[in-house]
Amino acid sequence: MISNKLPKIWFGGDYNPEQWDEETWKEDIRMFTLAGINIATLNVFSWALRQPDETTYNFSDLDNHIDRLYQHGIYTCLATSTAAHPAWMAKKYPDVLRVDFYGRKRIFGGRHNSCPNSPTYRKFAEKMADKLGERYKNHPAVLIWHVSNEYGGYCYCENCARQFRTWLKQKYETLETVNQVWNTRFWGHTFYDWEEIVVPNGLSEEGEGNVSAFQGISLDYRRFQSDSLLECYKLEHHALKKHTPHIPVTTNLMGTYPELDYFKWGKAMDIVSWDNYPGIDTPVSLTAMTHDLMRGLKSGKPFMLMEQTPSQQNWQPYNALKRPGVMRLWSYQAVAHGADTVMFFQLRRSIGACEKFHGAVIEHVGHEHTRVFRETAALGKELNLLEDALIGARTNAKVAIVFDWENRWAIDLSSGPSVSLNYVNEVHRYYEALFELGIPLDMISVEQSLSNYDVVIAPVLYMVKSGFKQKVETFVKGGGAFITTFFSGIVNEHDLVTVGGYPGELRDVLGIWVEEIDALEPSRTNAMVMNSDWGYVTGEYSCSLLFDIVHVEGAKVLAEYGSEFYKGTPVVTSNDYGRGKAIYIGSSAESSFLYDLLKTICEEQQIQPVMTTPKGVEVTSRVKEGKTFLFLLNHNETEVAFKLSHTGTDLLTKEIKSGVITMEPYGVMIIEQHN
Ligand code: GLA
Ligand code: ZN
Questions:
Q1: I want to staple 344 with a disulfide (CB 3.0 to 4.6 A). Which of 13, 233, 387, 415 is the partner?
Q2: Could you give the domains of the chain?
Q3: From atom 12 of ligand 1, which residue's Cα is the shortest distance away?
Q4: pLDDT at position 536, please?
Q5: pTM for this structure?
Q6: What pLDDT, on a 0 to 100 scale, did the predictor assign at position 209?
Q7: Which parts of the chain sit beneath pLDDT 50?
Q8: What is residue 210's predicted lDDT score, i.e. its pLDDT?
């Protein structure tokens, strides 16, 4: 439980009273109460108000806001405000300003704009956290700290360059090692002095679309920038913990955001929180995957939905409204995947600047007679009735999908073999198949133990880091099913190819050798002709993108290519290894193949779906103290009827449900299973 002071699903969100007057504050309280709001995130972008100059700090308005809300039963998620530095700071200490990818020094403006290696930024940010910790350590309203906001973006300034060299010295000790792991004899890049190393940006190694001439330096720069921002987080985290060891600290993450290695971040945070902004056409399975990924950052611990819009965004090209019922449905989707909070950006819509067209609980009209307010208030009421039933409940999964940010960086940075290879999409395709099957899964890092799982899928694991090979071998020997794909096992953590044949370190366990990789425009498909001897998956499927030319070295051939000069050669193989098996899928297979294959593998491993539901009806479960809660989410615009696998009580209506049930369009049921 995040805090025993508020033992229920937290409901509220970002609130910026500093943009309003006293009359409005009163109205806010009235409307928050109507909506069942129990938590407000304050102070997210108020650094300039808190600190008008270098030595003056001003907290009196914040005191008032926290107190006023608290008097009306609303707790505070207190932000440290350090996501946007004040104008005076930028003027007086230009080192806080970033240098962009093209080497241009920024001037004041926007937000999330501070150089993470600026001594000034670090000093003042830490000090602010310290002051806030000191001031509010005993305030009963403050339940959690929200450090900065959506850390991200890279800086390429001189400070960063200097710190990068220090980071490299710590990591590699000698320049010789750097030259070796970056393979600098290529294109005559040998370094003789640390000072010769410059940042990899648009003026040096990197070009459009993330591709780098030197993956080694570019990968390390990503690691370094992710670590630098994480250092900033940690400075504030520790400053707060000194005062309030018992209050959890978080920062809001952004799902599959590319620039930060969130598995590393998860370890430093007390609880993961994240901001969920799907578009109208985002597949619901991709949102589900992202929730699971965020839950995975702390090995399955419940997380916070820190932000979502009640209605629409302002920053998409077309900002569709969430259709009636969708905000509720997507809120429960978060809970179904492990969220213990449902929070919004924001509670009242701004009147000026770029977020005036961003949805909010209270719209510009200012009263409660709006669709958005009605839907919010209805949800608030419902969540309140759930009390603490779901708080802290966990997800049990026997299947894991491996996700790795460094692997993703390395794929993106590499030139060839295909510009259309998108790591997140490929991972999602496997996720989607399991989602359709109703099989729960965990998203895990390459570091995590595999021992809790029966099936482990590592799509496009191009980079195999040291230790992973042994882990997979032990897992398969012990009876697990391991599945990986084309473009896996190619390089080590420095993006240096493992010589001796692809898929490198995974070659033994897979029992294959990949000789060549063909890359064709995505519209050009090949066939995967299933081998009927194999027994279960038969017929033909199509495949595209990359086509590995595979030789078996002990593995069985499950499917062969149907055309091209490699017609008749293996495309899907399975290797018996110890008590388990390792499957290789040598091309990007169509979805129905992934569905059929994973269904079969899960059956073999005796992994059951949570329940079988019609298309578009998502099902998950959370368990707590011997109780199982089934979440049924109807993502269809139409009513559906189907048979429930278990009798149980619907927590939202308190009705007993069994047999055939009907779900309304965008309907939700949370069934507590009867034993
Ligand atoms: C992010 C930020 C918020 C707000 C929203 C708008 O998630 O954290 O401050 O800008 O986007 O969608
Ligand atoms: Zn910098």
A1: 13
A2: 10-99+110-153+226-386 (3.20.20.80), 158-219 (no CATH), 399-604 (3.40.50.880), 617-673 (2.60.40.1180)
A3: 313
A4: 62
A5: 0.98
A6: 75
A7: none
A8: 80
Q: Tokens for 330, please give them.
A: 């997507």
Of 261, 286, 222, the C-alpha closest to 447 is: 261
Q: Is the CB of 495 under 6 A from ligand 1?
A: no
Cα(276) to ligand 1 centroid in Å equals 10
**Which of 229, 222, 167 lies closest to 194 in space, CA to CA?**
167
Whole-angstrom Cα distance, residue 47 to residue 116? 16
Query: Cα(465) to centroid of ligand 1, in Å?
Result: 34
Element (H, E) at 341: strand 339-344
Mapping DSSP to helix (H, G, I), strand (E, B) and coil, where does residue 436 land? helix
305-346 pLDDT, tens digit per residue, is 999 999 999 999 999 999 999 999 999 999 999 999 999 999
Q: DSSP string covering 516-549, please?
A: EEEE--TT--EEEEE-GGG-SS-SEEEEEEEEEE
Q: What angle do CA 487, 404, 395 make, to 5 degrees?
A: 120
150 touches ligand 1 (CB under 6 Å):
yes
What's residue 538's pLDDT?
A: 76
Q: Is the CB of 345 under 6 A from ligand 1?
A: yes
Amino acid at residue number 631: F
For the record, the structure tokens of 427 come out as 């991972």
Helix (H, G, I), strand (E, B) or coil at 370: coil
